[in-house]
Amino acid sequence: MTLANKSKEKKREALLGAALELFAEQGLNRASTAQIAKRAGVASGTLFFHFNSKEELIHAVFAQVRARTEAALIRDVQSSMPVREQVIMLLTNLLRYFLDHPDEFRFMEQFHFSSFNTLNRELHSDKSYLHALMLRAQEEKIIKDAPSLCLEALAFGPISTLAKEYANCGTPIDKCTFETTISACWDALKR
Fold first, then answer.
1. How big is the CA angle at 168 (ends 47 and 115), to the nearest 5 degrees?
2. CA–CA separation, 30 vs 36, rounded Å?
3. Rounded mean pLDDT of 121-132?
4. Would residue 94 count as lying in a domain?
5. What is the pLDDT of residues 65-103, one digit of tens each?
6. H or E segment at 184?
7. Do 12 and 84 belong to one domain?
8. By the 8 A CB rule, do 131 and 45 touch?
9. What CATH number is associated with residue 43?
10. pLDDT value at position 127?
11. Rounded to an integer, what distance in angstroms lies between the CA atom of residue 98 and that of residue 56?
12. 157 and 67, same structural domain?
């Protein structure tokens, strides 16, 4: 990679980082491109050199955060593990990741429920490892035979609540609360 390309990539990464921070702090609609460029330490025009629009920038931040989240989600999960252990490990990894990365949690929550999510809705369920694992667990009669949306609410509702408390209010999440929540998620899913 040439020095010029490294500089361009460094500016792009700075813009993505600044956008993530400001979207998490102010929301997708309130954070302006001028604020993002200023926080990234680049000229406003530089933002539009890398991204054609604010929406394109939001989708780029989503793709980056989604990739990081998915990598964290499957860390140390082996397909040879029993389904129960896989689900518990995935949920544990997800909660741990969101507690360790509150800006990413706030961004993903905003993005998921925003009008910017029109192109990526199917990516949240149909193609994820956890979704495939839940389908397998249903087929093996390990978890409830319920619609995917219901299973997601049972699994992710408590995780989202804890992550929200921590990210938005600074509420400390101790080991007992963490473990009890993961256990409760599994208890809600299992047959």
1. 50
2. 11
3. 63
4. yes
5. 999 999 999 999 998 999 999 999 999 999 999 999 999
6. helix 175-189
7. no
8. no
9. 1.10.10.60
10. 58
11. 24
12. yes
